[in-house]
C-alpha cells in the first residue's frame, strides 16, 4: 500500500498523511479508511521515536545539543499529534532515552 511505503521512507503523522492524500484528490472516507488501517499496523509513537532517533544520532555526530522545543515543533510539522509530540518532548526534557518502549 502506498501509505505504508510512504511511512517507511519518510515517517509522518496522521495529519500530514491526511493532507497528502487530500492533495492527491482522494475522497475523505477513503482517506480515513487508509489512515485507520495504516496506523493500526504502525504505532504513531514508535514512528515518531524512530524519526527522532535519527535526528539524535545525527546531532551527536555533529556535537550539537538537542533542543526539545525544536523537536516538538518538528514533529508537529511532520503531522504527528500534539499528544505524541508532547511525550517525546517530555522524554527529551527529562533527559530520558526517546527510544525506550515505555
Number of helices: 6
Overall tally of structural domains:
2
Topology, number of strands: 0
Major β-sheet profile: none
Concise account of the structure shown:
The chain is an all-alpha fold and 102 residues long.
Q: What descriptive keywords fit this protein?
A:
102 residues; mainly alpha; 2 domains; elongated
Note down, in words, how this protein is organized:
This protein has helices spanning about 1-10, 15-25, 30-40, 45-60, 70-75, 80-95. It is about 70% helix and about 0% strand. It has six helices and no strands. The protein has about 100 residues and is an all-alpha fold. The termini are far apart. It is elongated and about 45 Å long. It folds into two domains: about 1-40, no CATH class; about 45-95. α2 runs antiparallel to α3, α4 packs across α6 (about 80-95) and α5 runs antiparallel to α6 (about 80-95).
Summarize the SSE layout with pairings.
Blueprint: H1 2-9, H2 14-23, H3 28-41, H4 44-61, H5 68-77, H6 82-93
Helix pairs in contact: 2-3, 4-6, 5-6
Amino acid at each position: 500500500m502506498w501509505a505504508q511505503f510512504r511511512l517507511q521512507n519518510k515517517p509522518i503523522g496522521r495529519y500530514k498523511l491526511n493532507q497528502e492524500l487530500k492533495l492527491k484528490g482522494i475522497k475523505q472516507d477513503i482517506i480515513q479508511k487508509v489512515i485507520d488501517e495504516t496506523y493500526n499496523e504502525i504505532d504513531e509513537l514508535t514512528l515518531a521515536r524512530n524519526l527522532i532517533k535519527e535526528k539524535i544520532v545525527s546531532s551527536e555526530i555533529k556535537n550539537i545539543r538537542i533542543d526539545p522545543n525544536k523537536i516538538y515543533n518538528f514533529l508537529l510539522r511532520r503531522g504527528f499529534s500534539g499528544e505524541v509530540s508532547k511525550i517525546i518532548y517530555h522524554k527529551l526534557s527529562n533527559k530520558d532515552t526517546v527510544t525506550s518502549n515505555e
